[in-house]
Structure formats: structure tokens, C-alpha cells
Amino acid sequence: MFKHFSLTLIAILFLTNTTFSAEPEVIKLSEGIYGFIGKKGAANSGFVVTNEGVVVIDTQGPKDLALHLKKKIQEITDKPIVYVINTHYHGDHTFGNQYFNEAKEIISHENTKKNLTEKDTQHREQFKKSFGENSLEGFELTLPTKTFKNTLSLRIGGKTIELAYLGKGHTDGDIIVYFPIERIMFGGDLLYKERLPWLGDAYISDWIETLKNLKNFDAGIYVPGHGGAGNIDMLFNLQQYLIDLQREVKKYIAKGKTIDEIKKEIKLPKYKNWLKYKEWLPLNADRVCKELSAQRQE
Ligand SMILES: [Zn+2]
What is the pLDDT of residues 221-238, one digit of tens each? Predict the structure, then answer.
């Protein structure tokens, strides 16, 4: 009897585990506002359900994740999707756009549309490196239809949504999505929680400054581009990481080390528990070296 019970329990745990922890998690942040939190540091999305329709913040990618996001929205509401917001151009946030193209507008910063267009070939290659050779089967580039430079306000179904570009950072087109009444901020990839940032397109010195601008928004809940929702600590922690990374790289340069030596030797043990620490710290250091040598040549 006991044996049977424990086997059943194991089976339930196993099923629970495979069914849920392998999937992104939908969390309710406030009335009508939801976070869609990627597993193991994968990209996050959000959505806002109002009586005038749904606003989607980042459409995921590849296809299965985009459709999963759509399914989760449809489980909560049968209202149509009216707006899509892309926080920046990276495919894990935008390549699902085609599955939400019933939206009246796909909104982004002007540089996001520019990057999606001009960097298309290399962007697809980079995406396939991360998600697999077949990850773009059936993919159709679906560009933003409405872009802006500094700020844009949306009012829909009683919700106020402020979009703002606060300076270069993770890319040259990152925007934040801010709910002033609910004090909720979706930071896109300007914010990470307990995961090393991807710096492939980043402007690290600018990013540190841009994060200062982010502090001017009064929020109680922050949803990063990767990692769980939390409070403003994630902003300070990421800013400190970028500062520490720059400082550490500069120390090695001062000792006359080459880029390859720095990539091999660099350690930032304070962040060793963050996801991607081992894999991306050398890449992060490489990016800092390149940015510093570009700055020296200016
Ligand atoms: Zn990104």
C-alpha cells in the first residue's frame, strides 16, 4: 500500500515537474497585468488584459514559445490582441510577432525596426546558434508598424501604459514599459535578474547611465527581460555587475594582458551563482575590451 502510494507520489511529482517547470510561468502582477516568465532565464514577456483588448509585451521566439504565450493569453481572455510592444530587436523577444499580427500596431523604438531590418541576416544566424538550426522554419520577419524616438503613451481599457527610451544599453533601441498607476515596470533586457546579461550588441558605459534614468520611475514590481520578477534590487545588482566587469577588465589591461588572456583568466566570484556565469563571462569581458579600445580610438 505504502509502496503504491509512494510510486503514485513520484509519478505525480514527475508529471508536475515535466508539465510545469519546463514551461514558462504566468504570474499575475496586478488586475489585468501578467508576466510570462521564461524557464531557466529564457526571455520573458508580459500581457495586459483590458475590456478593449490585450496588449502583448514581447512576442517570444521561436514559434513554439510564441504560440505558448498566445495560448496562455487565450486561457485568460477571449478579447482580441490590439497592440504588440517590442522592447528591443532580439529574436527571443520579437520573432513571435507574426503570430500576433492581428494587432492594430506593433510598437517599438525606431532603432528596433532599423536593427530588425538591417541586421536581419546576422541576427537570424545568431538566433539559430542559440535555438537550433531548424528554429526559424516558417519564420517571416514581421516588423514594427509604429515606432517612436523618446516616449509614447497608450491608453486602453482604463490602463495607462508609458513607453520610454532612456538611452543606449543592451542595444541602441531598448524601451521600458511602465504602468504608473500599478507601479509596474517591464524593463526588457535593460534589466536582468540573477543572470549574466547578453552584451553582444551592448553599450556598456551608456547602459550604466541608462539604468540611472530607470531609477526615476517609481515602481514596486520590476519584470526583467530574463529572470524572475522582483524589486528594484535587480537594477542595482545589474548596474553593479556592469561596473565590476568594466573595472576588472581594466585591471587586466593595466597588467598588459591580451584579450584572450583576459577571457581565460577573468573571475567575478560575487556573481558565480548567476545563470550563464561560466559561459558568458568571457564573452562579456571580450565586449568590454572591444568597447574600451573603440573609446580609446575616438
Ligand atoms: Zn536581448
Answer: 999 999 999 999 999 999
